[in-house]
Design goal:
CATH architecture of one domain in chain A: 3-Layer(aba) Sandwich
CATH class of one domain in chain A: Alpha Beta
CATH topology of one domain in chain A: Rossmann fold
Structural class of chain A: alpha+beta
Strand order of the largest sheet of chain A: 1-5-6-12-11-10-7-9-8
Number of strands of chain A: 19
CATH superfamily of one domain in chain A: Anticodon-binding domain
Largest sheet of chain A: 9 strands, mixed
Strand content of chain A: 15-25%
Oligomer: homodimer
Chain lengths: 478, 478
């Protein structure tokens, strides 16, 4: 029978396409499970969209064209050649680079079958062809929540998505402290208009650079690029300095002496979001108004969110979003939405990379059944099956090595318990003296290989401590 | 502020890229959860591989090149142009078309960090550019389990993967009955050699067509294409007719009077797998020896698996796999493996398409908190939060419509319970007479909108029946 061609020498990783070892994947899966649980408790329904979208849909926003991965079939026919010639965009497919564009398309495509307001969560891979660096990947997982409505979406949903994501993040207790920073586009646009800026858009673009550029340079840019005078520029800088974990920011903004209808509206909205999140805010997850946040070129029209991870500020925002007055539109109906997107990979990979985060075992198994000899396999399988029936992940040793070797087999994988099936030989084994009172009838025994404690056990009733049932997340400090 | 360009009219689905409505996605997620649970109970560790592999890796097997989707960055530079010119294959990326090729690469790449034998499961999307039809998609989800070892992999792992997948399938009790059909390449190769076939490979290729071509034609093909005489051809057909849910097939094969060392080995292995699965086999999941199964051009070297879904035979096999003596090799070390791959999308989409399978609600919420007026939102949120704290998915009505409308809101989504916060107005509401004994203090009430039963309730203690906690899978018969 023919065999595959002999494979190459050891393959090397692809830059920008991170992969995890099993222990790390346990952490990622627990994060995803925790996120799902929180989202579902709040009534968010799961959807998943296909990985590919027509190129013309992907390029609707126009700015990120260089990041798209196009698809082409190796033996392409004319129907879907993947060539990006003029007019071919509707037939050319590209991989989605976020979950918002596909969600907007999904809403339009299924509008007749969905009930609005529609709350959804979506946890999926996305792809961007940009230069890889820490915190920037070519393939990565996002976890998005959005609420979308037909025609009008009440403001309280802005509060809701902030609170739900804050609650989800606060459940991820093994992460470094996070700051969920909230602002409002109406507030800043109203402020810029109120102080007489000729156009608020360039002001916002300059202020968006405030984390990378010194204030004096920002002030000059505001004069040169946004047409402000020095005093206006200083007011913009003072606005951007305002941060507060309560609604005290309202008075501080008002004290700057600028007034505009849109500013008042934005202040009231931002105060409502900050108030609404007060009960979720903790030391580990601070929710605060931060009037620097602008979300650059994204088309938000009200609330905007960013999130920084303490000690990992260079990653930029790990969780961002905001309100769109028109998330989608089919010409007749407009669908406003508000949402927030968590960069799961961006959050976790730097922690994995610095060995700050892993799991305490590389297999799900809580128990290894030691195999005395190959003839005992059926009996060992039966013990394992009895434990599994009660939800205890169990594997049987692959070969009947000496028990010492089988214990080391468990140790290497982090399996906490080794189970010794009853047998006469056991009492002569090198494992040491029999433990405790032993009945005449030989009994199974189970050993906690961390403490060395070994006790008689019955597969029908023995249960490990709850914390040993599944792999546990381990963190290491600085 | 600028807005996105007005979007197009209603988008249409992409053929071959199936997407689910939320109720269907609940079903898929429960299937995936159930699979994960079974796999982990048996000690299989989760991994996920990147979606993209170098083209030369994807084409190693040679047969399925036309199905690969190549990736190309829209603004490609020379480093990863995605052009499939000569010698470019190592830099060209394509989407993986199965989970076996990436797993083999992952094993080689991480061999130093993995413990062998390595049991892994992997549930992920894969992509194939083939013509879409029912059961054949361009994007679909596979759930694979494999055990891989260094140098040698004991045979009992063949029994293990069959049993684990059989157990996983038997947990999916809402599926039509399934038949897991098992054969062994050594058995059929030994049989063909034993009866004097000049080359077993063409015999296997012809026998692989047995479901599509009448026996008389197969017999002719065996003579013309595989160089057999009529008697040999008849023996091959008689072998292929043998099916058994126990090890009685051994005697039936022996009765054909062919003998060969490889045949005996194959018979013993197949008997061991069938024996090992006897405890898992039920009416709904039959495990049987089926001596037609050959797995065509795949490079299996022992046990082979296929699975048919009753009433959906035209889908072909929904769950397939087998033993590879060389799953991967880096020239120095060979990694034998045995695995089986379930087509999650292939299993579910035809059932969704024929309205045989869905969930009983489109949202996770078990409870809708009715909103008497906008001022009550804070109080309603507090009730919802109290329920969520105890694991009860809850949403608050988006607008203070009349209660009748709010009940219909819940009904449309399949939310079973509507919660009415205590308030004086409730007693005058059109919902009917107050139920039961009412204390002087107004109390919250909860209504099961299916039965109409409404009872006083306390958010700190009330719990819905277990079956209402999460969306339930609904099946409809023929």
């Amino acid at each position: 029978m023919s065999q595959p061609k002999p494979s190459l020498s050891k393959p090397t990783p692809l830059s920008g396409f991170p992969e995890l070892l099993p222990a790390e994947r346990f952490v990622e899966l627990q994060v995803i499970e925790q996120l799902r649980t929180t989202f579902e408790l709040h009534g968010f329904a799961p959807i998943e969209t296909r990985a590919a979208e027509p190129l013309d849909q992907l390029l609707r926003k126009g700015e990120i064209d260089k990041e798209v991965y196009l698809l082409r079939r190796l033996q392409a026919d004319s129907e879907d050649s993947g060539e990006a010639g003029p007019g071919a965009d509707a037939n050319t497919l590209g991989l989605h680079f976020d979950l918002t564009v596909p969600f907007a398309r999904y809403v339009l495509e299924n509008a007749g079958k969905l009930d609005f307001p529609f709350r959804r969560y979506q946890i999926q891979k996305v792809w961007r062809g940009e230069r890889p660096q820490e915190g920037r990947y070519r393939e990565f997982t996002q976890a998005d929540i959005d609420v979308v409505a037909k025609d009008a979406l009440p403001f309280h949903h802005d509060v809701e998505v902030a609170r739900v994501m804050a609650e989800a993040l606060s459940c991820l207790s093994f992460l470094p402290p996070l700051r969920l920073q909230i602002n409002n586009r109406k507030l800043i646009e109203g402020f810029y208009r109120g102080l007489g800026a000729p156009d608020p858009a360039p002001v916002m673009r300059v202020i968006d650079k405030i984390d990378k550029v010194p204030p004096a340079v920002i002030a000059t840019m505001l004069v040169e690029e946004a047409g402000l005078d020095d005093e206006q520029a200083q007011l913009c800088l003072r606005l951007a300095e305002i941060q507060a974990q309560d609604t005290s920011f309202v008075e501080r903004v008002q004290a700057l002496g600028v007034s505009h209808e849109l500013l008042s509206e934005g202040l009231a909205e931002l105060a409502a979001v900050i108030d609404g999140c007060a009960s979720v805010s903790t030391d580990r997850l601070v929710v605060e108004a931060d009037l620097r946040i602008a979300r650059g070129l994204d088309y938000y029209t009200g609330t905007v969110f960013e999130t920084r991870m303490s000690g990992y500020e260079s990653l930029g925002s790990v969780c961002s979003g905001g309100r769109y007055d028109s998330l989608a539109s089919d010409g007749r109906t407009t669908y406003p939405g508000v949402g927030i997107s968590l960069g799961v990979t961006r959050l976790l990979m730097p922690l994995f990379g610095r060995k700050k985060l892993t799991a305490n075992r590389s297999v799900p198994s809580a128990v290894l059944i030691a195999l005395p000899d190959e003839h005992s396999r059926v009996r060992c399988d039966a013990i394992a099956q009895e434990l599994r029936r009660r939800g205890i992940a169990t594997e049987v040793a692959p070969t009947p090595q000496k028990f010492g070797k089988q214990i080391r087999f468990a140790e290497r994988r982090g399996i906490p318990f080794v189970w010794f099936p009853a047998q006469p030989e056991l009492q002569d084994d090198a494992l040491g003296a029999p433990t405790g009172e032993r009945a005449d009838e030989p009994q199974d025994e189970v050993k906690d290989i961390r403490s060395g404690e070994q006790v008689p056990a019955d597969a029908a009733t023995w249960t490990p401590p709850l914390e040993d049932l599944r792999p546990q997340i381990l963190t290491s400090g600085d």
